[in-house]
Prior knowledge:
The structure holds 2 protein chains of 2 kinds.
Chain A: E1 6-9, E2 12-20, H1 25-38, E3 42-48, E4 63-71, E5 84-87, H2 90-96, E6 105-109, H3 115-120, E7 138-142, H4 144-151, H5 159-163, H6 166-177, H7 183-192, H8 197-216, E8 222-225, E9 234-240, H9 241-256, E10 260-264, H10 271-278, E11 286-289, H11 293-305, E12 309-314, H12 316-332, E13 336-342, H13 359-364, E14 374-376, H14 382-397, E15 400-406, H15 407-411, E16 413-417, E17 466-468, H16 483-498, E18 510-511, E19 515-522, H17 526-538, E20 543-548, E21 550-552, H18 558-562, E22 565-572, H19 577-586, E23 591-594, H20 603-615
Parallel strand pairs in A: 1-8, 2-5, 5-6, 6-7, 10-11, 10-12, 12-13, 13-15, 14-15, 19-20, 19-22, 22-23
Antiparallel strand pairs in A: 2-4, 3-4, 9-16, 14-21, 18-20
Helix pairs in contact in A: 1-6, 4-8, 6-8, 9-10, 9-14, 11-12, 17-20
Chain B: H1 26-40, E1 47-51, H2 59-62, E2 66-69, H3 75-85, E3 90-96, H4 97-103, H5 105-114, E4 118-124, H6 159-165, E5 170-175, H7 179-191, E6 196-201, H8 213-216, H9 221-224, E7 225-227, E8 235-236, E9 242-247, E10 250-255, H10 273-281, E11 290-297, H11 303-315, H12 320-328, E12 333-336
Parallel strand pairs in B: 1-2, 1-3, 3-4, 4-6, 5-6, 7-11
Antiparallel strand pairs in B: 5-11, 8-9, 9-10
The complex binds iron/sulfur cluster (SF4).
Amino acid sequence: MSKKAKLETVDNVTIRFAGDSGDGMQLSGGRFTQTSAIMGNDLSTLPDFPAEIRAPAGSLAGVSSFQIHFSSQEIHTPGEKPDVLVAMNPAALKVHLKDLTPGGALIINKNAFTNKNLKLAGYDSDPTEDGSLEDYYSTHFIEMSKMVELACEGIDLSPKLIDRTKNLCALGVLFWMYDRPLEPTIDWLNKKFKSKPDVVEANVRALNTGYNYGDTAEIFTTRYVVKKAKLAPGKYRNINGTLATCLGLLTAVEKSKLSLTFAGYPITPASNILHTLSNWKRFGVKTYQAEDEIAGIGAALGASYGGSLGVTASSGPGIALKGEFLGLAVITELPLVVINVQRGGPSTGLPTKTEQSDLFQAVYGRNGEAPMPVIAAATPGDCYYTAYEACRMAVKYMTPVMMLSDGYLVNGSEPWIIPNPDEMNDFDAGFVKENLTDEQYLPYKRNKETLARGWAIPGTKGLEHRIGGIEKQDVTGNVNYDSDNHEKMVQIRAQKVANIANELPPTEIFGEKKGALLILSWGSTHGACKAATESLLEEGLKVAHVSIRWISPLPKDLKDILSNYKKILMPEINTGQFRQMIRAEFLVDAIGLNEVQGKPLGASTIVAKAKEIINE
Amino acid sequence: MSDKPLLKKADFQSDQAIRWCPGCGDYAILAQTQKTFPEITEKKEDTVFISGIGCSSRFPYYMNTFGFHTIHGRAPTIASGLKMANPELSVWLVTGDGDGFSIGGNHMIHLLRRNVDINVMLFNNRIYGLTKGQYSPTSEQGKVTYSTPMGSIDYPFKPTKLALGAEASFVAKTIDKELKHLQAMIKRANSHKGTSFIEIYQNCNIFNDGAFSHLTDRDTKEEQLLRLEDGEPMIFGAEKNKGIYLDGTSPKVVQIGKDYSIDDIVVHNEKDRFIGDMLANFTSSEEFPEPVGVLYCKERPSYDELMEAQMKEAQKDSKKAKGLHELLNAGDTWEVK
Ligand code: SF4
């Protein structure tokens, strides 16, 4: 270890890796995350991809980044302004420099600052030469490309492939700076490139080169130690929202002894759900890549009709196409889970960015009176429990359920206590087994408590019946155009969804049970709101945070909770959709904090707004 | 199956009042279906009729089997999902020219391409009936309807040609008034593994009456219909004296007797894709007779079969009970005390 660099302990660090799409920044970020997780830090990550698959190399459009916030304390967000920015080329510097904390560390691949790349990024002069950066940041211009080229001498790989290892060099520098072991990454490389020993060798050398550079170059004056976080005891892993969602679905079908049929159409950022589940055939999961979004939900509903649990996933534009089928699922009262991984809209919008702007679409976006339960995940790991609950309610209440997550949740990750599925509740699919009467089977006879109809699947003798999208006669399910019957059925369908609220647990309140301000959130703003509330509470302010999981139906105790605070603040990544719903439902003067910038809300923004409101 | 059917026609009749216009061709199709089913199944609970929206799509309500009247054009999607969930079921899809080839055209071609083991009955009346008389994608050019007062300028589809283009493994055509033939086609479709596509010319006596009268009128029909039999020469006409002759690669209608003998006439081969394509091209042409029967039939593994095979393969040596725990605990894990 270098004698020059002193070791300093810090609690919180945010690092952003940024480079060209081809620079491997997601990989560097991912490995740093995994290593920090193993070291026991709490963490939260935010990958950010360009919308174009192969934007021209070196262009601003082609910049890809990965941010990790890690800490010796409990944290809830991927951080706001990074303390360290790794910029692998001029474009990455141009896009991300404005976010770097003043005085923060700037680590640059000097070799990428060629005339061509500078021009592509719109720099008139080279910022690593003209002195424009040194005054504001702690700068480290490292010739990474050159270093890996030298380090990999003698390895039989093309210069292009060798140059690609520079992301490992950058990672090595960061590992040195934050005193992290290299072994987990080396093990991982060995596994990943098992059949390509040359590639492993080159990457390991690049990693070591970066690490040793930190150790010997004497340009770093300080190394930092981020100690283990005091997390709740348990066995942990790192998890992103996509995997958590899929595991939640699988748990639900295991606990209900149902089979899972997933049908979907490729769309960013939901496709990874299809990819993940496609690999789980060994667990009996059937997947179907449909010809379009409509066919995706149609096949899922068809599977549910046949006695499997049908699930489909998409993002806003795809959900729009599925709308008519949602109505059919509502009127035929079949279980179905529809996952909306929200992204920036309207239309194609910002496909790779996050937003919460499909709330109205989820709650109201169907023709006719078509109420449908809507549940939202709060964190990447929470997608597991949300998906499980969505399935459970869909089956118990014989209804389609919409699960909302978003681009940040599915791609972001956090340390997660591995749940024991044996401790999760079993639930029964409750197929109707026989017709005990001599009469025709009555498909719309209901369970008195839930109002759910029976799940009578084809293949069961004596249960032959017809269903469809035309209004049903109560009990018999026959086609019926009678006006009183229609009104009754509209009410029954609404009451059935409302009944879900009867079994929701008491709403958790974080902070003061009564006070000056309640921060009310739903979905992925949970983390930022919780972090903001923690810091406001530390300052002695009488505040609380409530995160809503079931948006439809809303929890029954919410009305009383709202009445216990002088003011209500509702941060959302939209123009105030949930706020409109809350105002309409409870006639409270909730105040909005709304940003639609395609990225998560920052805790500091919420803190500032909260103080402004309290002091008004 | 035993020789004597266990079920009767009445077992397949539901208690719902039928709402088609009196005289509609749909009645005949329903009756032939109800009549045929006792011969092809002993378990009506294993039979599911799925439809979209349109006059024909009311069909499932009248069959006392399982039935699902879905949404416009989307029946193939529900049927595919159902068959995936339970490949044991006998799934029948009832659609029309608007439902199946206009709003649902995309699903139809993909169903045929995938070859899911589903039987499709396309009721082609060349008009929109339920919405009261607009031209459909199979209506002839120049058709005057409520939406085309000066005549339609659209060129129509030939459904059998489209089905073959979409790689259908079974393509047949029949007519509502050809009762015995209709029954035979239903039986053939039932025994075919993979998607079976039957186009049924159906008279809409309200909005497009007589669209197929040249094929159904006693006086004219035998001159117009080419009744296909596998392995038999393609002859037609009231006197059975006309046939299809291949002049190089071009088919033409010839008189048997003078210049041509029966040996010159093309012999139908259901498995020959080029013959299938040729016959599909005869549809509604001035020159050629209208082919009815099985145009093409060649089995290949169905989607549901292939999926079951993959599922089996994937589950060959897994211990499913441990699966979820193993997945949850995969990758790097660590203990916090
Ligand atoms: S409108 Fe035509 S197709 Fe529809 S029921 Fe009446 S006759 Fe039959």
